[in-house]
TrEMBL record:
Keywords recorded for this protein, A-Z: Aminoacyl-tRNA synthetase, ATP-binding, Ligase, Membrane, Mitochondrion, Nucleotide-binding, Phosphoprotein, Protein biosynthesis, Transit peptide
InterPro entries listed in its UniProt record: Aa-tRNA-synt_II (IPR004364), aa-tRNA-synth_II (IPR006195), aa-tRNA-synth_II/BPL/LPL (IPR045864), Asp-tRNA-ligase_1 (IPR004524), Asp-tRNA-ligase_1_N (IPR047089), Asp/Asn-tRNA-synth_IIb (IPR002312), AspRS_core (IPR047090), GAD-like_sf (IPR004115)
Organism of this sequence: Panthera pardus
Entry GO CC: mitochondrial matrix; mitochondrial membrane
Subunit structure: Homodimer.
This protein's name: Aspartate--tRNA ligase, mitochondrial
Amino acid sequence: MFSCWLSRLCRGLSTPTGRVTHLIQGSLSRRLMLSSQRRIPELSSFVARTNTCGELRSSHLGQEVTLCGWIQYRRQNIFLVLRDFHGLVQVVIPQDESAASVKKILCEAPMESVVQVSGMVISRPPGQENPKMPTGEIEIKVKSAQLLNACKKLPFEIKDFVKKTEALRLQYRYLDLRSFQMQYNLRLRSRMVMKMREYLCNLHGFVDIETPTLFKRTPGGAKEFVIPSREPGKFYCLPQSPQQFKQLLMVGGLDRYFQVARCYRDEGSRPDRQPEFTQIDIEMSFVDQIGIRSLIEGLLQYSWPSDKDPVAVPFPSMTFAEALASYGTDKPDTRFGMKIVDISDVLRNTKVGFLQDALSKPQGTVKAICISEGAKYLKRKDIESLRKLAADHFNQEVLPVFPKANRNWNSPVAKSIMEEQRSELIRLMEIQEDGVVLLTAGEHRKACSVLGKLRLECADLLEARGLVLRDPALFSFLWVVDFPLFLPKEENPGELESAHHPFTAPHPNDIHLLHTEPKQVRSQHYDLVLNGNEIGGGSIRIHDAELQRYILATLLKEDVKLLSHLLQALDFGAPPHGGIALGLDRLICLVTGAPSIRDVIAFPKSFRGHDLMSNAPDSLPPEELKPYHIQVSWPADSEAEKSSLNQPYHPES
Ligand code: ASP
């Protein structure tokens, strides 16, 4: 009935669109959306079970069911707890002679063997209910059982509380995936991605398009993985993101593109990075910054898990300059204060030599943060380790001052600060009783960076002592905007590199500075920050070929030939366009509260970029390299590696 009505309606809709049709279409899509939201998934269709272990309740009493799952636990050969992705259920092992074969199967199968059982849902005897188990009111009276596959001795128990090293978890990832936590993380990820697709494609007309993985080297940005080809001396590269393709799709009139895109960056290991990772990649034509920001706010609000506090929109925003000055970073954690304060004016006339030195230089400043209750919670050795961190990593001196409590922990400046300067500091920095001030002097950017780092370290220290600064249930989103278009190159500060990527458009108010003071040009680049982590970034793009050529060739000194396809495309009526990419792994990691992005990826690489399960990357014998016209030039100290070609594999520990 419904399908007949639906097909008639759809046929009607394929006529040229008029206002009425639009209205019908709108209400149809809303109705389809609601019905898909309400639909409960059918978890046992097409398979050899009638129900999942986790779904059975008193409402199923008396039903004959067939379940498939792993043996989690067995008690006195009387009870067995069966587990599947959906939960646990207690199975009663029959004790009567006539069921001896069933008893044998269920009592002899090792833990984690996979079995199928059939029987009746019965209620547990009074007093034996388990309120901690969702299925705790019932049990299964088994009539038949089948051992589907026995489990050998496991490298670790499948219990979340059993401690195991990450190397072991990654080596046996398929077993690790059986844990409750990994199941939760991957299923939440899948649900969020589904909602994102729904929001983008069904509600806002985006087109899901796959772009190539075999691409070529492109200038700027991250290091790329190189893939040999059969043509001598020719290589593909894995794309660091689909950036060029998504812009070309706009030239192609696709108008609204999105992809759950795999990206590759050969950047070595960091705790929150992976050599291959996933982005929700988006591009739109005829859009401005506000349009992209509203789209993303709506997307996150729509896809946000229902068991978390709802996302409040619009997200606040902050300029890059403000973020650096107040938090010492372009990804501020705004869940707590302890902001950086410029106290140059207060201390301009002190007698302290190193402050005077710093202030006499052109960019010289004195900056400070105030750790509320620092005197109560931080020990002398904590302050010393903070100072050491500043000295070792930033070559920057940091001094503690205790303006109110007047305690003197190695603070040569405290006694040189006059009474009125002291009261001015207390006013300016809102210093309370027991507050500790950490002070540093030097060039603006450097002084901010060091205090930004110490601010986070202090938060860790205070939280380790029991103070809650960052509510784990709080999700604090922030847009950071007005980035500079260029930064000095790290390895050669005389040259420029793009702060985002070379396709980012300059801020319209700063275009005139491109030819005179490129370093002063702000860009139309925006980053999305969540609890101090960058979870997305994008920009309005350059759609004018001339401007793009000038930035690439003249300012960035890149070889424009490598991008001639893109430059040419811009000349053929490229529409104004912009986009963004959200780092899906990082986002899910923060939403689930997982300690690492590896915990929200089914098969991640280790810290050193290896797949510990399959031993990738792996060696290839020389004859297999021949078709690619390449050979390995072994480093002098790699004899061991060379001879390991045919050796058994030992994972990283
Ligand atoms: N392609 C960019 C990145 O991966 C995102 C964007 O500009 O849309 O960071």
